[in-house]
Amino acid sequence: MVLNSNIAIDGPAGAGKSTVAKLVARKLGFTYIDTGAMYRAIALKALNDEVSMNDVSGLARLAKDAAVNLETGPGGEIRVLLNGKDVTEQIRKPEVSRVVSLVARVPGVRKQLIEMQKALAEKGGVVMEGRDIGTVVLPEAKVKVFLYASPKERARRRREELAQKGCYVDSFKMEEEIAERDRMDSSRKINPLVPAPDAELIDCSSLTVEQVVNIIMEKVCHS
Ligand code: CDP
Fold first, then answer.
1. CA-CA distance, 85 to 223, in Å (whole number)?
2. Which one of 46, 51, 135, 194 has the minimum C-beta count within 10 Å?
3. Which domain holds residue 142?
4. Atom 9 (ligand 1): residue with closest C-alpha?
């Protein structure tokens, strides 16, 4: 494998992208980049500033003016900074999850964030996860995977994740929210959620995290 090449991990909500991407990055000594966190930070700012989710130019302006940074915290965890303020916990709130896909469909917002993401990966050595990494942000990446799982399983995982943080969500509601976000992300006009033609599709429904990491590491070794 070329040591400075990048790894693209895409897929829908709750497929386990973050867990897997972080582990792969740690094994390779690469930088992990969560692009969803960037869209979430812009969505949080829009909510705080009371910018309407239909105000396309207002949202684009907001993305242009906002400084979104990803930093490694003292325990090795990734912290998300919005205009210098730590918003790591706030961006995971259900109210942000409910509107983030509306913000992510705005061309001006995507243009801004994609530019930043490309710059972050310029020198290589990055594991980047999102929805359009293999197709748009890093089309030249040597290793591309698209992780998916059944909607039921993804909703179960996401509920478990939130419960660990003390946030309990009804399972039916969770499934509905995930299905709605899938629908919006897959059907938007620009950069929709689709596997890149050269991505390996991995059904994670009945695989352990370790098994998925091993499949990716195997691909990395042969790339
Ligand atoms: O963590 P989860 O799977 O819930 O989602 P996320 O990765 O935090 O992404 C949140 C939302 O940001 C997605 O539902 C997409 O609408 C948007 N997103 C995107 O459009 N493009 C990306 N590269 C990453 C996220």
1. 39
2. 194
3. 7-221
4. 36
Atom of ligand 1 nearest to the CA of 117: 23
Q: Is the dihedral of CA 86, 177, 179, 16 positive or negative?
A: positive
Residue 58 lies in a domain: yes
Ligand 1 centroid to residue 13 C-alpha, Å? 7
CATH of the domain at 11: 3.40.50.300
* Domain assignment of residue 30, yes or no: yes
Residues in Cβ contact with 181 at an 8 Å cutoff, skipping those fewer than 6 apart:
12, 13, 97, 100, 101
pLDDT in tens, the chain (223 residues): 556 799 999 999 989 999 999 999 999 999 999 999 999 999 999 999 999 999 999 999 999 999 999 998 887 788 999 999 999 999 999 899 999 999 999 999 999 999 999 999 999 999 999 999 999 999 999 999 999 999 999 999 889 988 888 888 888 889 999 999 999 999 999 999 999 999 999 999 999 999 999 999 999 998 8
CA atoms within 13 A on the CB side of 10: 28
Q: How many domains does the chain have?
A: 1
* Residue 1 maps to a domain: no
Nearest to 44 by CA among 104, 108, 102, 87: 87
Tokens 């497929």 identify what position?
15
Nearest atom (ligand 1) to Cα of 104: 20
